[in-house]
Amino acid sequence: MISGQSFIGNSASAQGPITFHTFNPKTNTENPWLFHEANDEEIEKAVQLAREAFQVFQNIPGKKKALFLRTIADEMEGLGDDLIQVYMTESGLPEGRAKGERGRTMGQLRMFADLVEQGDWVEASIDTAIPDRSPIPKVDIRKMLHPLGPIVVFGSSNFPFAYSTAGGDTASALAAGCPVIVKSHPMHAGTGELVATAILKAAKDTGMPNGVFSNLNSNSYHVGKALVQHPGVKGVGFTGSIAGGTALFKMAAEREEPIPVFAEMGSVNPVVALPSALEKNGDHWAEQLANSITLGVGQFCTCPGLILGLKSPSLEAFAQALGKLLGEKEPGVMLHPNIYQNFKKGKEKLSAQTGTSVVADITEDVPPNVAQQRLLMVDGDTFLANPTLHQEVFGPFSIIVQADDAAELETIVHELEGQLTGTILGEEKELKDYSGVVESLKDRVGRLIFNGVPTGVEVCPSMVHGGPFPASTDSRFTAVGIHAIKRWVRPVAYQSWPDTELPDALKNGNPLGISRLLNGDSSDKSI
Amino acid sequence: MISGQSFIGNSASAQGPITFHTFNPKTNTENPWLFHEANDEEIEKAVQLAREAFQVFQNIPGKKKALFLRTIADEMEGLGDDLIQVYMTESGLPEGRAKGERGRTMGQLRMFADLVEQGDWVEASIDTAIPDRSPIPKVDIRKMLHPLGPIVVFGSSNFPFAYSTAGGDTASALAAGCPVIVKSHPMHAGTGELVATAILKAAKDTGMPNGVFSNLNSNSYHVGKALVQHPGVKGVGFTGSIAGGTALFKMAAEREEPIPVFAEMGSVNPVVALPSALEKNGDHWAEQLANSITLGVGQFCTCPGLILGLKSPSLEAFAQALGKLLGEKEPGVMLHPNIYQNFKKGKEKLSAQTGTSVVADITEDVPPNVAQQRLLMVDGDTFLANPTLHQEVFGPFSIIVQADDAAELETIVHELEGQLTGTILGEEKELKDYSGVVESLKDRVGRLIFNGVPTGVEVCPSMVHGGPFPASTDSRFTAVGIHAIKRWVRPVAYQSWPDTELPDALKNGNPLGISRLLNGDSSDKSI
Question: Which one is catalytic: A37, A42, A301, A392?
Answer without folding.
Answer: A301
